[in-house]
Design brief:
single chain, 496 residues, alpha+beta, Cytochrome-c3 Hydrogenase, chain B, 4 domains, five-stranded antiparallel beta sheet
């Protein structure tokens, strides 16, 4: 008697999705799928628009990460119009982007992924949310989370023109220079962000790594996959969210390839499945071998964990210290090719990696805010239309984000291609869900705690399904177990 388990909607993510789990006659998991049942179509309806509108159109793709699309589109326009970004404008862009990373990673740790650890994976469902987190870590910590998001959003608003869908980007520049008053405010906010990041890491060490059961969960095999890792690095192989070259390392830690964002089509191809609207990118030189890991599979991850795996170091001192502590904890420090770190393949470690990035973003903010030329007024330049191609790339919180535009001699777009962070991770998300389901569901027995642990397999990737909404664990949920042959309902579990 075959069965199917449907988790719809899945919770605590940006957007909408569902999980389909198929069981055999003995109630063991045969397969599981992560599905995105919504179609937005941004690429299609951008064709025919004026190219310079793209930063303000694509930042509507998502209400959680509009800064990523705004900056990636701006970088694509820099190339499209042949106007390299002015140094002062580039500093403004990266300052905004660093503040955005602080807020986004804060949201995920305290509101989306963190409740599974801070409150507990098997805690009552009504407690696995931000309110449950505040009850665990204290009201002052909750106030600190709100204050962190508020001050960084206010800074983004002042630098970018709007607080949610910023509007400051121009081809080759930025619309308004930084005033001395805003620069002073940025310096103060950066210092506060560093303190908050250190507090968040201390919380993770105390509550998660200090708990033997949680530590075993993070370091265990249930959520582990050996795939390639991808991320943007600077000239010293340190992660850089705003600019650099894209580096890919294999599961053993050897550098597989390194390329400029403009060369992405030489390295990345996309596979399509009929049951989801999201494509499955893979490494072109290896090919699509299905939803399997290992060096013979073209599947790769592009996540905070992947960015640490491809890096030789961090570019700021406090983040570097935590980077070393991270690889030490998994026995991977200095054990890879040429004495570099071996990749960490335990996917729940992504939560720790995300906090290390939070600290790096805060420290990078401080560097940019302290730059002597931050208030340089030379942030705009003349632009003229021309036919051509522009490709811009940044590291979004969820992975490498690429905007690829083509326009005619009038500056009208003729083609648009977007490869977003979640798209990069679509295959490993499905693989992680399937592995977790197979390890947790036996003899057809399911419970709310088991289903939450299956959902933890996708939450660690922080997927953004091209939608401006997200839930924190209280949305209505019904899991239905049916016969696969005639659809007869065998059992229901309700949430909310």
């Amino acid at each position: 008697m075959n069965q199917r388990i449907t988790i719809d909607p899945i919770t605590r993510l940006e957007g909408h999705g569902r999980i389909e789990i198929f069981l055999d006659d003995a109630g063991e998991v045969v397969s599981a799928y992560f599905q995105v049942p919504e179609l937005r179509g941004f690429e299609s309806f951008c064709v025919g628009r004026q190219a310079e509108e793209m930063p303000n159109i694509t930042n509507r793709i998502c209400g959680v990460c509009p800064e990523a699309h705004h900056i990636a589109a701006a970088k694509a326009l820099d190339e499209l119009f042949g106007t390299p970004c002015l140094p002062a404008a580039a500093r403004i862009r990266e300052l905004i982007y660093s503040a955005f990373f602080v807020t986004d990673h804060t949201t995920h740790f305290y509101c989306l992924g963190g409740p599974d650890f801070i409150v507990g994976p098997d805690a009552p469902k009504e407690e696995r949310n931000i309110l449950g987190v505040i009850r665990k870590v204290g009201l002052d910590a909750g106030k600190a989370v709100i204050a962190c998001r508020a001050r960084n959003h206010e800074l983004i608003k002042k630098l970018g023109g709007r607080g949610v869908h910023l509007c400051g980007a121009l081809p080759g520049g930025w619309s308004v220079a930084v005033t001395p008053e805003i620069a002073d405010e940025a310096r103060q906010i950066a210092r506060q962000n560093i303190e908050f990041a250190l507090f968040s890491l201390e919380t993770f060490h105390r509550i998660v790594l200090g708990n033997a059961a949680y530590r075993d969960l993070v370091q265990g095999d249930l959520y582990a996959h050996q795939t390639y890792s991808m991320g943007t690095v600077d000239a010293h192989n340190a992660p850089n969210f705003y600019d650099g070259t894209i580096r890919v390392v294999d599961p053993a830690g050897y550098e597989f390839t390194r390329y400029r964002p403009q060369e992405y089509l030489d390295h990345i191809a996309e596979h399509v499945e009929p049951w989801t609207y999201v494509k499955f990118p893979y490494l072109k030189k290896i090919g699509w071998k299905g939803f399997v890991d290992g060096p013979e599979s073209g599947v790769y991850q592009a996540t905070p964990l992947a960015r640490l795996n491809v890096a030789d170091r961090m570019a700021t001192p406090r983040a570097q210290a935590e980077f070393e502590r991270f690889f030490d904890a998994f026995g991977c420090r200095g054990t890879g090719p040429g004495g570099r770190n071996s990749p960490v393949h335990h996917r729940l470690a992504t939560h720790w990696a995300r906090l290390i990035e939070l600290l790096y973003a805060a420290e990078r903010m401080q560097e940019l805010a302290d730059h002597p030329d931050l208030c340089d007024p030379n942030v705009r330049q003349a632009v003229s239309c021309r036919a051509g191609v522009g490709i811009g790339s940044v590291e979004a919180p969820r992975g490498t984000l690429t905007h690829h535009f083509t326009c005619d001699e009038h500056g009208i777009l003729t083609s648009v291609n977007l490869v977003v962070g979640t798209t990069n991770n679509n295959a490993p998300i499905g693989m992680s869900i399937a592995k977790a389901a197979k390890g947790l569901i036996h003899k057809g027995v399911v419970s709310d705690g088991i289903l939450n642990r299956v959902e933890m397999a996708f939450r660690l990737y922080d997927p953004c399904c091209s939608c401006a909404t997200h839930a924190i664990g209280t949305a209505p949920l019904e899991v239905t177990v049916r016969r696969s042959d005639d659809g007869t309902i065998l059992d229901r579990i309700s949430r909310g």
